[in-house]
Amino acid sequence: MAFTTGKDSSDVVSEINITPLVDVMLVLMVVFILTAPLLNNAVRINLPKTAATTPATPNKSVTVSVDGENRIFIDKREVALEALEPELRTLVGTDPELALSLQADQAVPYRSVAQVIAHIQRSGVSKLSVLTEPAS
Fold it and tell me: Where is the chain membrane-spanning (predicted)?
């Protein structure tokens, strides 16, 4: 595509007008900036509702609890955070398929719960469930 200058019909302007190209690129950049955060949560899933079931394995479940004052309990016995991992290692040693349930008060800071989960993971527990209250 060539344009004439109007002075002489033999002179052809060979410059590209990049203003429309820049405009299109800026619009595309704005569109990508606005849509990029939405791509992380693109999959919407409606999970099925089921009735409460009982576990298929008859193994005894151990409950680790963290109360509102950051005290840690294995079943109903209080233990220190440092003693949690060795205690769980002995339980896993007696039952390698140990099922562990973790429950924490909602007032407990996340850091405390994360530390307990790290100790549980290092102790070798392979089945962990986190207990919550059903929403009303």
Answer: 20-39
In angstroms, rounded to a whole number, what is the distance separating the alpha carbons of residues 98 and 79?
19
Q: Which residues contact 65 (CB under 8 A, 6 or more apart)?
A: 72, 73, 102, 103, 104
Domain boundaries, the chain: 12-39, 61-130
Whether pLDDT at 38 is above 80: no
CA 62 to chain CA centroid, nearest Å: 25
User: Region 48-75: what's the mean pLDDT?
Assistant: 72
Query: pLDDT per residue over 87-128, tens digit each?
Result: 999 998 998 888 888 888 888 888 998 999 999 999 988 888
**Is pLDDT above 90 for 55?**
no
Fold of 61-130: Nucleotidyltransferase; domain 5 (3.30.420)
Cβ neighbours for 127, distance < 8 A, ≥ 6 positions apart: 97, 98, 99, 100
